[in-house]
């Protein structure tokens, strides 16, 4: 199957297993031990669905997000995005798929401190080759949509935590991805700011697949479905 398949789920994990420290084909000393982060995980996520991933630290939530984004290749199993198995692609192929189809909201924002809010949002558009004027227009529009029209020239250090998170979400949406993954998107925000961010995530989830990893009950409450993980295993899949 090829990317842009519209007949199946936006995201599919099939019997995914991942070991950190696994050194297939390499020598590992007896003192080193692989840590199993995921154990035969199978999950489908549809377009227009907001999926919550719940579980304690170390349960495998972030590993799932990284696998969907093509930031890691699982030890075993398949991870498909719009019909293409990322595990069968080269590093370049996974990068190309991520840039085109997946937006990432990192837990600690990962904004470049020397760039303005607008330049941070426009950065992924540089990678896809959009002209400068079009990048600037797109970034300005997105920042306005997340309520930061008066902060476009501000540096991250001049923004509040909630404003930085909204910049991070605008950046993740800059390439109009089919899939959005967010790692603890409200973890460092106060209640009111977190509620605004959640409203934004549910709005963008109307026409794309959104996967949110969180410990926060309020965050998980906006999900259409919650998958609970323990020790890398799915123990509950609840709508």
Automatic annotation (TrEMBL):
- Please give the GO cellular component terms listed in this UniProt entry: plasma membrane
Q: Check the record and name the PROSITE patterns matching this protein.
A: ABC_TRANSPORTER_1, ABC_TRANSPORTER_2
Q: Does the keyword Transmembrane apply?
A: no
Q: Where is the signal peptide?
A: none
Q: Which ranges carry the ABC transporter domain?
A: 11-239
* Listed GO MF terms: ATP binding; ATP hydrolysis activity; transmembrane transporter activity
Q: Does the keyword Iron-sulfur apply?
A: no
Q: Which UniProt keywords apply?
A: ATP-binding, Nucleotide-binding, Transport
One Pfam family this chain carries?
ABC_tran
**PANTHER family in alphabetical order:** ABC TRANSPORTER RELATED, IMPORT ATP-BINDING PROTEIN
Output this protein's name: Putative ABC transport system ATP-binding protein
The organism named in the record is: Halostagnicola kamekurae
